[in-house]
Specification:
The chain has 204 residues and is of the alpha/beta class. The protein has a single domain (2-202), classed as 2-enoyl-CoA Hydratase, Chain A, domain 1 (Alpha-Beta Complex), CATH 3.90.226. Helices cover 45% and strands 20% of the residues. It has 10 helices and 10 strands. The strands form 2 sheets. Strands 1-2-3-5-7-10 form a 6-stranded mixed β-sheet, with helices on both faces. A hairpin with a 2-residue loop joins strand 1 and strand 2. The radius of gyration is 16 Å and the shape is globular.
Length: 204
């Protein structure tokens, strides 16, 4: 359900559970954490994407009801992604929802298919978001817009997400691989220490 491909220093992680809208289980979250640990010493660029037409619908519903919605794994995963010294790119092939926001918000760059929608229905579901998600969202789009998503339950379309700064570029899913190669080119040609040094200057 989690596929990892390595092309030299470019690593690509694919959420591959399209029949369930790439909803995430505890096993999948644990595997993503393992990959982040491996990438910390082995990758210059890490790309995160999904199979099918949805990036991720968030937590698997059955596991969410059993406690996954409030699991520490979400926060651990987003923290691992945020701390990676390499360049991280979320290639959002479709809709991003719920807890899946965390790892995408923790990436350095987000590109989105034009059909994608963005929503995080914690108010309606009665859960608190993972602690770092509202902070990262606020840093990207400001407090009022973060409240529109987290408190107002608004679904944001891709063009509005781009205008707000929630995503950085609109790229059709069929063209995202090529777009990623362009974005990754300079980092792949650099030393990992150089990548980490520039990232540290930008990221508080």
């Amino acid at each position: 359900m989690i596929e990892l491909t390595r092309d030299g220093d470019l690593w690509a992680v694919t959420l591959n559970r399209p029949e369930k809208a790439n909803s995430l289980t505890s096993e999948m979250l644990s595997r993503l954490i393992e990959i982040a640990d491996e990438a910390a010493v082995g990758a210059k660029v890490l790309v995160l994407t999904g199979a099918g037409k949805v990036f991720s619908a968030g937590a698997d519903l059955d596991e969410a009801r059993a406690g996954l919605a409030t699991s520490h794994l979400w926060e651990e995963l987003s923290g691992k992604f945020a701390e990676l010294p390499c360049l991280t790119i979320a290639a959002l092939n479709g809709t991003l929802a719920g807890g899946a926001f965390g790892m995408a918000l923790a990436c350095d760059i987000r590109i989105s298919d034009p059909s994608a929608k963005f929503f995080y229905p914690v108010m309606k579901l009665g859960f608190l978001p993972q602690p770092s998600d509202p902070r990262r969202m606020r840093e990207l789009i400001g407090p009022a817009r973060a409240k529109m998503i987290l408190m107002g339950g608004q679904k944001i379309l891709a063009d509005e997400a781009l205008a707000w700064g929630l995503v950085d570029r609109i790229v059709d899913a069929s063209e995202q691989k090529a777009a990623v190669e362009v974005l990754a080119g300079d980092a792949l040609a650099a030393d990992l220490a150089h990548i980490a040094g520039i990232k540290a200057l930008i990221t508080p």
